[in-house]
């Protein structure tokens, strides 16, 4: 089944809109895609910014091929997850571990895309290797100290506004993502998505099996308004609470496109230099979303290393 149609398949609706109640009373939303076998390898997918648990549908065909169960998680305030005020980057691993316990997963992998990259690295720092078998970062943001050189102007303006003039950033997000905040017109939402893509990414997103999923996922990101996106940018552009050089995990894979102007490849190169056991693979000429055309490689690469 194509990954775009899986979101409309009635038999998969229950898996797409799951949630648990955490110990502190918050809801944590998640969705499951890929293999349904009892012996499937579990992988937590951490969505981009903006994004939601539904991003994980992109993994469905390749995950089925290699017997991987992909669990997409909504961060606080996105999709089905309750907001959490004043949250920090290192708060998230505890939520993911609580979900793992609920799902009776003793061991698992984590993969973060784009704005989900820092959260994946937080897991690599905070979750014991006896539990976390490996971490993948695809086009993941690096520490804010690296600056915005190489990013497209829209990202540079938005991130700096959120850091220094949040009132202006809120207006920019409200205007730029108005169709997603309304969430009623799929055609108009997809048009906004395409306008925010560079030409190379437009080719990727024009394919229904990619663009439809990303559109529905971003609509979920704004289901509760724009606050979660504002908070997410604040978190990844603030002090992470740890140094990347102190990450102890031994199975860390990094994948970046050399033509990415959302998250420049220089961020991946920096992370490889800083993290002792990280290995970077660069995809020549790939832009931001294009990198997700290599999901099959990601799964084989990450899980093959974790099983040795």
From TrEMBL:
Residues 42-126 form the AB hydrolase-1 domain. GO terms for biological process: antibiotic biosynthetic process; monocarboxylic acid biosynthetic process. PANTHER family: AB HYDROLASE-1 DOMAIN-CONTAINING PROTEIN, HYDROLASE, ALPHA/BETA FOLD FAMILY PROTEIN, EXPRESSED-RELATED. This is Alpha/beta-hydrolase. It comes from Penicillium malachiteum. InterPro entries: AB_hydrolase_1 (IPR000073), AB_hydrolase_fold (IPR029058).
